[in-house]
Design a protein that fits this description.
disordered N terminus; 5-stranded mixed β-sheet; about 15% strand; 14 helices; single chain; 5-stranded antiparallel β-sheet; Alpha-Beta Plaits
Length: about 450
């Protein structure tokens, strides 16, 4: 029975019941007006029949008006909360969910108001939760981007190392990548000098050049506290650069952010870059050692500088023992910069190889021909004095002029200037003979090029 009454909304708390009361009260006025019209104009003597006086009728009308006003009040009390609730609902629809609907009633309007407040609160909580998830997603995306950037950098570094690029360029690239990954933090690489055993800055990012150039540390000064004071950073982390148990240096990253701590995954990432640095340094060391052990030039196939200097020293010592002469020629290509910037690399290499062929065809089997640098060749002439060596030099000069003179362009001739030195007249060591011949070759260039000076 109770449920039936609730369904019919017959309790006084119900909005439908109040609406019925308001309707009844509001409809009383037109009913009374109609009754008055009937009594006055249709049945003018009916008041005598009922015994009603004018005062009684006036009192009844007054009571009716009061009841109608009460009906208006009840109607207003029902409509105002609905209007207020509608306005608050519109605000919530536009995104303003900070306010709640303040309607304290025990009818359907009050229940609806409470339901809307609960729904708004849940929406607000869900939005805050979504905002929190959004922040977490943003952080995750930043970490993913950092990892992708780090992986890309490591792959690029691997390519640089495998292609045997200049070590300084490779190290500068690594330091820049580390700085980018660590939000433009101060990053520097310190390598140990083998002689002084001091660590000096070889590459840095976001560090004053004056401070970087003057920073020299001993092994015991590489602790975080000392490094922080020396460099002037609040937060600092250092990763040792080691290879096969040998220490090469230290990769250092730091900043001045407040309450900052380097995360474990950041440290692991820095270890990877430190490992790449150690591989690059070791690879460069091995390349240099292989070049030192090599005795031939890669382009021409002739002997290289190290071999020629060692062999010249041996020939001089042999000549001194047996009191025999030993000639030495330094062949310097004229206007090498113009030659180097003209034509393709393949064409330049072909000319250098052809020069080597001419040199070898101009000497005997016991003579040694080599390429000392990009633009300089040399010939060791055992058992040849200065006059004989000068004749060989002149023959070489003419062959190069005749066969390669116009190989660059009609208006640019490919020629050489040659300096001739001899043991023991010009020196008794390899350094002395090489220095003398180099000085004579410079004189030949200053006198007009394409000539031999003894």
């Amino acid at each position: 029975m109770i449920n039936l009454l609730k369904d019919m909304s017959m309790f006084p708390k119900g909005l439908r019941y109040k609406t019925m009361i308001a309707f009844s009260l509001m409809s009383l006025i037109p009913i009374l007006v109609c009754a008055w019209l009937v009594i006055t104009y249709i049945f003018p003597n009916i008041n005598l029949f009922f015994g009603l006086s004018l005062g009684n009728i006036s009192f009844i009308l007054f009571i009716s008006i009061v009841i109608s006003i009460l009906g208006l009040y009840v109607t207003k009390e029902m409509i105002d909360p609905v209007i207020k609730m509608a306005e608050e609902a519109k605000k919530a629809a536009t995104g303003d969910i900070t306010k709640c609907i303040d309607i304290n009633r025990e009818d359907e309007v009050g229940s609806l108001s409470k339901s809307l407040n609960i729904m708004t609160r849940k929406i607000k909580e869900n939005m805050e939760e979504l905002r929190a998830y959004g922040e977490k997603t943003k952080l995750i995306n930043l970490e993913i981007n950092k990892k992708v950037l780090a992986l890309s950098g490591l792959l690029h570094i691997g390519n640089l190392i495998s292609s045997s690029k200049e070590l300084n360029n490779t190290l500068s690239f690594i330091i820049q990548k580390v700085s980018d990954i660590e939000n433009n933090s101060t990053t520097l690489l310190m390598l140990m000098d083998e002689e002084s055993k001091e660590y000096t800055v070889v590459s840095s990012c976001n560090l004053e050049e004056i401070k970087a150039s003057g920073l020299k540390l001993k092994q015991y000064e590489l602790s975080p506290d000392i490094l922080a004071k020396k460099i002037g950073l609040k937060n600092i982390v250092g990763m040792p650069v080691t290879f096969a148990g040998k220490s090469y240096g230290m990769l250092i990253v730091g900043n001045n952010e407040k309450d900052f701590i380097f995360a474990d995954d950041e440290k692991e990432l820095l270890k990877l870059f430190a490992k790449q640095i150690s591989i690059a340094v070791e690879n460069d060391t091995l390349i240099k050692r292989s070049k030192e052990l090599s005795i031939t030039d890669e382009v021409t196939g002739l002997h290289n500088y190290n071999y020629m200097k060692t062999r010249l020293g041996e020939e001089i010592r042999r000549a001194i023992v047996y009191q025999r002469p030993c000639g030495y020629l330094l062949i310097d290509i004229d206007d090498f910069k113009n030659f180097y910037t003209t034509g393709s690399e393949a064409r330049r290499d072909a000319l250098l190889k052809e020069t080597g062929v001419i040199l070898k065809s101009s000497v005997t089997e016991i003579d040694k021909v080599g390429r000392l640098s990009d633009d300089r060749f040399a010939v060791i002439l055992p058992e040849r004095n200065k006059r004989q060596s000068a004749n060989v030099a002149e023959e070489i000069r003419k062959k190069i002029e005749d066969r390669l003179g116009k190989s660059i362009s009609p208006d640019k001739k490919f020629t050489v200037s040659i300096g001739v030195s001899e043991n023991p007249i010009d020196g008794s060591t390899a350094d002395e003979l090489m220095e003398k011949a180099e000085r004579l070759a410079r004189n030949a260039k200053s006198l007009g090029k394409n000539r031999v000076i003894v």
